[in-house]
Amino acid sequence: MKKSGFPLLSLGNKLIDAYIKCEAIDDGRTLFDEMTTRHIVTWNSMISTYIRQKRIGEAIKLYEEMILDGIIADEFTYSSVFKAFSDLGLLQEGRKAHGRLLVSGLSVSNVFVGSALVDMYAKFGKLTDARLVSDEIVEKDVVLMTALIVGYTQNGEDFEALKIFRDMIKDGIRANDFTFASVLIACGNLADMNIGKQIHGLLVKSVSEFAVASRTSLLTMYSKCGLIDDSLKVFDRFFNANLVTWTALIMGLVQNGREESALSIFCQMIRNSMTPNAFTLSTVLRACSILAMLTEGQEIHGLVLKMGLDRNRFVGAALIDMYGKCGIIKMASSIFNNLNELDVVSVNSMIYGYAQSGNGEEAVKLYDQMPGLGVKPNDGTFVSVLSACSNAGLLEEGRRIFSSIKNNHEIELSSDHYACMVDLLGRAGKLEEAERLINQVKNPDVVLWRTLLSSCKIHGDVEMAKRIMNRVIELKPGDEGAHILLSNIYASTGNWNEVTKMKVMMKDMKLKKNPAMSWIEVDGEVHKFMAGDLSHPRSMDIDEELKRLSEKIEGLGYVPDARFVLQDLDEKDKERSLYYHSEKLAIAFGLLSSSNRSTCIRIFKNLRVCGDCHNWIKFVSRVVGREIIARDAKRFHHFRDGFCSCGDFW
DNA sequence: GTAGGGTTAG
């Protein structure tokens, strides 16, 4: 580097100082490079300014240059470079710098150096190193303790974080807003509202004015503890809520099952002239996706495009999921193909999108392409692709994938993976093989047995069901799902005595069945229907429509299938009960409400669609010449011209 | 040294 030699050291330093104060670091740098003698203070202020301006790479280059120049770094230098290495994720480099610091005779006991080092190790998840360094610091201060607390919460050691906080208070170190912001996150992660409330009280006492960050943490803490109304109260008292605060509230509402409120708060946020970012948009998209609100989802997609965020991986994955859950798989895959960078979550979302739409081949194809795409499968990938195989009845593909997990030494075969495989085998009718597989698991949990039980129901194997039920009861006597399953198995095989016994037993155990419900969105309004529910204002018209449909489809060969009535009624009443199943009511209402033949009817059901209704909808799609999409608790069924996308396998 | 995000069967 050419050095023309700026003559006066002190004047040069002052000039650089002035440039830095004006944030004109590039001009400062030009001058700096020209100086013949450079003082350590100037090196330090150049480095720390680069870091402040988030030009971390340049900061590190300068530090390396400094070492080559033979300058001996001091405490100020090290506290900056530790931060730089931690921001860039360079653990080895950071360790080297730590070593160099020790060799040069400096000590970590300086609280500035120590805190930066603790923060660096903590961010790398090296909590033991962080703790060792902090133990050497005699004069501990609030910054150091906060760095430790953050380190522990970010590494899932929330309980330990709280302990550090407690000791800190005991040692007479006053917590500030930074500390509260972090420690409240720990309470939220632990979902411990008692400690959370105590810390809330402490916060009120300790800080004269709340900072936005600590109040936002408070809001998040309440929503993670399931106390969303308290979050709303915290929010109401904000006068300076920023985008993070709004996003945290929206997220909290979604996590607490209040998706509609989340959307209306989002609209309120927009009216308040806040510009959403990728965080906000991925969160509201999740709300749309849970409720399968296509119209709203599309509006947000419009916003995403306007902001140029459609290739962002977080927003992209949320869009894929939303379109997948709304059954528009083509849109999901076009977003997937346009993503800037693929990662495992977006691939998993896409695979699961195919799984829900019954497109097992595409799901497996994408899974097989993953190595070529440079994306390593994780736990979720296997869950998604195995459930795709299960939905599509792809037994051999499923077996191949399951054994590839076994051979993949980076991923441990979990009980979730076994559950998927048991489901796949069971639904494909390989009940014994499924049972043998469960017996290979060390401590099989109740979920595995319950999964097999549901396969027994599909294949009407009462004997096996009884045997499996005993295993369930050993593990979890009051398992609601298993009791309902077994009682349905008895019902579908006409064993009404046993059904009655089960009902009495379930009543004694206070187990309740979740009633079936279907809904449809018409002109932005959701209409819900229960089986036999005649409370809808247009129920007379719905009844008429059902009658018209029945006549037409019976002419084409539809016969009600009373096996799907799970009550002890005579044949006539059984048919009547089938006739008013909630999904039929919703579809009849949908047909009444939209005469435009080119639009499809989209209904939702909270449980799985029943076999008779499935058949009924196939016929109806043919006579009305319209596409009908039914999303049940697990997947989509696209009915067109008498056929369903699931190929009758679900 | 601080607050907010995307996927998952049964």
Your description of this structure?
By secondary structure, this protein is mainly alpha-helical. Among the domains are: 434-509, Serine Threonine Protein Phosphatase 5, Tetratricopeptide repeat (Alpha Horseshoe), CATH 1.25.40; 518-644, no CATH class. 67% of the residues lie in helices and 4% in strands. The chain has 34 helices and six strands. It has helices spanning 9-21, 25-34, 40-52, 56-68, 75-88, 91-103, 111-123, 127-136, 142-154, 158-170, 177-190, 193-206, 212-224, 228-236, 243-255, 259-271, 278-291, 294-306, 313-325, 329-338, 344-356, 360-373, 379-392, 395-407, 415-427, 431-440, 446-458, 462-475, 480-492, 496-508, 539-555, 571-579, 582-593, 611-624; strands at 517-522, 525-530, 601-605, 628-631, 636-640, 643-644. A six-stranded mixed sheet has the order 2-1-3-4-5-6, with helices on one face. α34 links the parallel β3 (601-605) and β4. α4 packs across α5, α15 (243-255) packs antiparallel against α16 and α21 packs parallel to α23 (379-392). The protein starts with 8 loop residues before the first helix and ends in a 6-residue tail after the last strand. The model has no long low-confidence stretch (mean pLDDT 90). It binds one DNA strand of 10 nucleotides through α7, α9, α11, α13 and α15.
